[in-house]
Request: fold
Amino acid sequence: MDFLIRPAVPADYETLGDITARAYLNDGLLAFGDEDDWYFQELKDVAKRAAEADVLVAAADDRILGGVTYVPSGGPLAELARPGEAEIRMLAVAHEARGQGVGQALVQACIDRATATATDVVLCTQPTMHSAHRIYERLGFVRVPERDWNPIPGDDFTLLTYKLTL
Reply:
């Protein structure tokens, strides 16, 4: 499949928001498991992310296949990044485009952006995101368990940390 990785434009936001939120929902990745989950609404709000970070999409013709949020070093959407580190967030690929290299191309685009300004790229992922873990590891990311964290205080939901040294 031929596709292009490019910055998201406002006309992409609704579609990418739907792809991202549905991917997390359908894969069972939302803590509360339905559309009322607060994170479902965060995932849908691409305009908010695009105002504070770089949102990239994979597009084939006029179809959006997936997207990712790239947070440069010091960006306000960073949850995990330390000074000098860029962060990758909210990677999602439409169900029908999975297994065709879209996710890996989106992550690689983030790495390419980071090489000019960061020493490392970090990301967090859920323990059940096995396909994503394979992408990260293929691209050279390694687990950094000492940086795993819990985004929901009082809950045992833990996010795993991966890091790529550039």
The CA atoms of residues 32 and 38 lie 8 Å apart.
